[in-house]
Amino acid sequence: xxxxxxxxxxxxxxxxxxxxxxxxxxxxxxxxxxxxxxxxxxxxxxxxxxxxxxxxxxxxxxxxxxxxxxxxxxxxxxxxxxxxxxxxxxxxxxxxxxxxxxxxxxxxxxxxxxxxxxxxxxxxxxxxxxxxxxxxxxxxxxxxxxxxxxxxxxxxxxxxxxxxxxxxxxxxxxxxxxxxxxxxxxxxxxxxxxxxxxxxxxxxxxxxxxxxxxxxxxxxxxxxxxxxxxxxxxxxxxxxxxxxxxxxxxxxxxxxxxxxxxxxxxxxxxxxxxxxxxxxxxxxxxxxxxxxxxxxxxxxxxxxxxxxxxxxxxxxxxxxxxxxxxxxxxxxxxxxxxxxx
Length: 341
Description:
79% helix; globular
């Protein structure tokens, strides 16, 4: 195996195991053994079932978006794209490799880079937009989280979150985004400024493509939401195994908030931040000493299991030198890339 990939995987596994052990160690309580002995193993199958359905809807979303751009993908190619995202997202800084992996597999399937880039951007936009639109619902339904927030402030925050996608679309019809980018990047290097403009133009193009197919976009948006909700449902599935009383809507709402934060996490796959956030959000729902174990179970089911599957399909398709290939892809200039199509 490539030494660079082996080193990266070794460091990642060590980091994950260290974080998991630390979370369990600092949250474990001897009284938790009473609940763990009563844990129903069949709930593990329920959690895995929720994950499978979530990944299935993720694949359906990919097929829908590919059809919008006139791209054709087989079932095997869809599976490769979805799982490869988990793999390279965890072994690259800032999860940047996830998008690159999806483009690499779609290009291998015959989808041009320009179209595959649009599909990847739209998938990300839909996921984040879905979570943002759910934030007001979560805030209004979970009083424990916002009990310190006055009703007037809560209303303003809710309106702001609902308005964000609309405001973003309206702004892109003006020159203000370019001016804002110019102002914020004026002291950066030429390469950084250029990359910022390229990213914005790709984002703008993706939004334009979505606007041309409203019904297909709506379908993909619903599939996106179902995919996220089923993947998050692995958590209440594990909670059910403890035979404790909990509010399903409250648990799912807190998973929405946590995963929205993880989209902007600087650590690989949100490791560390995810576990800490989980413990904070669910400490008043779970029995004392169990929250760390549940956090680790959730992460291994919803993140690390797809990662292992993604590692298998990615390395099998591109070899152990996949990290260098992804690095070259990320540095390829758009003009050169277009010329190679």
